[in-house]
């Protein structure tokens, strides 16, 4: 059983680093761009420069006429012809405007909430590495290792909850700023469910290890 759990733990860690790591790498540019945009606007305000404020919006969209109606056209350089496309997501820079007070306050809060999420996304791989090292050293039933794995699970669930909240507020802001001719803006969190899935699996794995740890202690006392 110890050997099987060790193999399972190593395989799980491999898939974790691959999937979550890929997600983090993809999200870093958007996080950096949003931070840069906010910093530049703050500098312009400080210097009393009058410029049109803009917001970077990450949109999930569906065609107003229904899926597979292909309302968007692109130039295909391979054949110098126009091809029709059905777009599901967009990143746009829209002119900002005054939002309802409650939404403006909440949106500002989500900007500050991005920082602890980023910290958690750095914390999780570090703890995962320590857990893998313990598993490789056959220290898998140590309560310290089990607690560390459980914390990873909780951290993943916290990240999932925070991202759902942030993306919902961003969706509400986008609806206030943008109205597309051919597309409806929708709220979608399909890509974030990976954090919920891995969080629940990690907590389940921690509970299995805890039960195995208890059984091992009882066997040692019996012997």
Could you explain the architecture of this structure?
- This protein has 4 helices and 5 strands.
- The protein has 223 residues and is α+β, with helices and mostly antiparallel strands.
- The protein has one domain (2-54, 96-179, 189-222).
- The chain has a 3-stranded antiparallel beta sheet with strand order 4-1-5. Strands 2-3 form a two-stranded antiparallel ribbon.
- Strand 2 and strand 3 form a beta hairpin.
- The longest helix has 45 residues, at 2-46.
Q: What brief labels describe this structure?
A:
three-stranded antiparallel β-sheet, 223 residues, two-stranded antiparallel ribbon, elongated, 14% strand, alpha+beta
Largest sheet: 3 strands, antiparallel
| Unreliable segments of 5+ consecutive residues | none
How far the N terminus sits from the C terminus, by CA atoms, comes to: 18 Å
Q: What fraction of residues sit in β-strands? A: 5-15%
Q: How would you write the strand order of the largest sheet?
A: 4-1-5
Number of strands: 5
Q: What sequence of helices (H) and strands (E) makes up the elements?
A: HEEEEHHEH
């Amino acid at each position: 059983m110890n050997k099987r759990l060790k193999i399972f733990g190593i395989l799980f860690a491999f898939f974790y680093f691959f999937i979550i790591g890929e997600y983090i790498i993809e999200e870093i540019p958007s996080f950096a761009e949003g931070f840069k945009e906010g910093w530049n606007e703050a500098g312009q305000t400080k210097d009393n420069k009058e410029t049109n404020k803009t917001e970077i919006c990450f949109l999930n969209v569906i065609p107003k006429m229904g899926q597979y109606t292909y309302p968007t056209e692109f130039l295909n350089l391979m054949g110098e012809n126009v091809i029709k496309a059905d777009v599901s997501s967009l990143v746009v820079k829209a002119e900002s405007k005054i939002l309802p007070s409650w939404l403006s306050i909440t949106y500002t809060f989500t900007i500050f909430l991005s920082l602890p999420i980023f910290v958690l996304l750095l914390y999780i791989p570090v703890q995962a590495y320590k857990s893998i090292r313990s598993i490789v050293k056959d220290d898998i039933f140590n309560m310290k290792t089990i607690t560390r794995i459980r914390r990873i699970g909780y951290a993943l669930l916290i990240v999932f909850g925070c991202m759902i909240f942030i993306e919902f507020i961003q969706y509400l802001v986008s609806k206030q700023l943008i109205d597309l001719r051919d597309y409806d803006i929708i709220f979608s969190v399909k890509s974030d469910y990976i954090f919920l899935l891995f969080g629940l699996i990690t907590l389940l794995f921690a509970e299995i290890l805890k039960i195995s740890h208890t059984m091992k202690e009882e066997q040692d006392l019996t012997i």
